[in-house]
Design goal:
The protein is an alpha/beta fold. The chain has 13 helices and 10 strands. The longest helix has 20 residues. It starts with 5 loop residues before the first strand and ends with a helix.
Length: 324
């Protein structure tokens, strides 16, 4: 066992960083920690590598990551069609800095990790997951330790408000880079005009400066990028998400009626396979959404919610696990 003082490295990138709230919690508890996320806190790769190397010589390093294990600059460029040479992949971190403890927590509620990552996950000492699903039981056979700790965006139990006077949806779009690449900024703005009315608030991801300036001038409301499903549900009674994105699972498994837009980025068959059997989820094509909302408002379509099975994230329990 290392006698060096502990230092926590939180490694993520933009949409693949779900552990930012845990970083904030650890800092609030007085932990020595750094957030390595070039999307939120830009850095130069060489300088960051040098700093991490120096830290690893002085401290006992605990790596906590929520990025896909092979998520590096090449896979980022392939997915987003522009480069970021500063990205440090989790597997690269293991190879370069040899942390004393390694922890993985997913950024996606639907797909904890891809099958291609399974051969490498046994290199992690602790895998934390939001809830039990088939992947959880598979990981139990592969990993040293797997613990269910809840969903990190869920801070408290929530309930869908009543008496709002009809259908009050809020939209959390996913697949946004794909839409920009496919349609361009103006084409994506037109997609919203065609399918999402200005009466539906929208929460875009951190750093979006494409459609927001355009549609804001046309009466659309954009929520702060820090707003979660659970923040928004205090004044809304339905969540709209995309395909089989993480939003669909975190909403539906919290007992919130949820529309899954089959937006064409992924084949309908693939989305429907992932959504099959989840109570309270309504798969719709974008052009069907306005009629669906009208039918709910008219009493022709009843909204049903699934059971609330997703627990709030256990911050203190995770702190204890990583410090004892």
């Amino acid at each position: 066992m290392s006698t060096k003082p502990k230092y926590f490295v939180f490694l993520g990138y933009g949409g693949e960083n779900s552990i930012h709230p845990l970083f904030d919690y650890f800092v609030s508890k007085g932990a020595s920690a750094i957030l390595v996320d070039d999307h939120r806190i830009p850095y130069e790769r060489d300088e960051m590598v040098t700093r991490l190397d120096e830290l690893s010589k002085v401290y006992s390093i605990t790596l906590i990551t929520s990025s896909h294990l092979w998520f590096d600059s090449k896979t980022y460029e392939f997915s987003n069609h522009h480069p970021d040479p500063n990205i440090i992949a989790p597997l690269e971190f293991l190879d370069k800095f040899h942390p004393d403890m390694t922890v993985y927590y997913p950024h996606d509620m639907g797909v904890f990790m891809h099958e291609s990552e399974i051969p490498f996950i046994d290199q992690f000492d602790l895998v934390l997951v939001p809830y039990r699903n088939n992947m959880y039981y598979k990981l139990r056979k592969t990993c040293k330790q797997v613990e269910v700790v809840g969903w990190i965006k869920k801070r408290q139990e929530t309930s869908v408000p009543t008496g709002l006077g009809g259908c009050k949806p809020v939209f959390f779009p996913s697949n946004v880079p794909n839409f920009y690449n496919k349609l361009g900024v103006e084409g994506f703005a037109q997609w919203f005009r065609d399918n999402i009315g200005p009466d539906i608030p929208i929460k875009m991801a951190f750093g979006d400066n494409g459609i927001m300036p355009i549609l804001s001038q046309e009466g659309y409301t954009f929520l702060d990028s820090s707003v979660t499903v659970y923040d928004a549900i205090s004044s809304h009674n339905m969540v709209i998400g995309s395909g089989n994105s993480s939003i669909i699972f975190e909403s539906a498994y919290s007992g919130i009626p949820t529309v899954a837009l089959l937006d064409g980025i992924m084949p309908d068959e693939e989305n429907l396979k992932e959504l099959k059997g989840i109570p309270g989820v309504y798969p719709l094509h974008p052009e069907e959404l306005k009629e669906f909302i009208r039918a709910v408002d008219a009493g022709e379509q009843e909204l049903h919610a699934g059971p609330n099975v997703l627990i709030p994230f256990e911050f203190e329990r995770v702190w204890e696990m990583l410090n004892n």
